[in-house]
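Project standup — Tuesday

K.O.: blocked on the structure for the chain from last sprint. Re-posting the sequence here as requested.
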Amino acid sequence: TVLQALGDLKAHAATNAILSQLDDTDAGVRSAALASLTRLGLDSTADLSAKLDHWLNDPNVKVRLQAATLLIHFGSFERALPMLTRMLQDSRQEQRLLALGTIEQIAPALQNDAAPPLDIQPVRLALRDPSPAIRKMACKALGALRRETTITDLIDCLNDSEASMFWNQRMEKHRTRSWKYCPPATSKLRMFF
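H.V.: unblocked you, prediction finished:
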């Protein structure tokens, strides 16, 4: 989208145009505008910071998560992390999955000395979720958080065939793709690999 491109280009000249999209009636536009502002690397302003509280309570989950991501970027951990923790404990799978994805995305900022420690117990509990998708995303989030205390939890996940199946499928796709361009004479070697 245009908003993503402007953020990726760090187009600071477009900041006011992006800010004007935050009041759009379409949640997708609001979410994309918040994501674009994060990519721009803006500094916090009092006006924008106050509006972010409003978007943390937006009816659309993706808008809420983008608002939390921007708050993390601004260093306002105490305003964003409680919402993410609540989402990790939500009964709806989509909410938990999106929260885990956001934690993976913001993990580098959480390693900042100024950041309060994230309670990773809800992420650890997600490793036991009935949904393989949740378990996979919990593994990715824990890996991104880079906490040595989670190594044992992640090692235990190696035995989770459903959670690791995604990685096996990716490797199989890569292996198949690498043989795709082999000449017919060497394609017989496939049976040995």
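K.O.: great, moving the ticket to review. The longest helix spans residues 161-180. Residues 7 and 43 are 14 Å apart (CA to CA).
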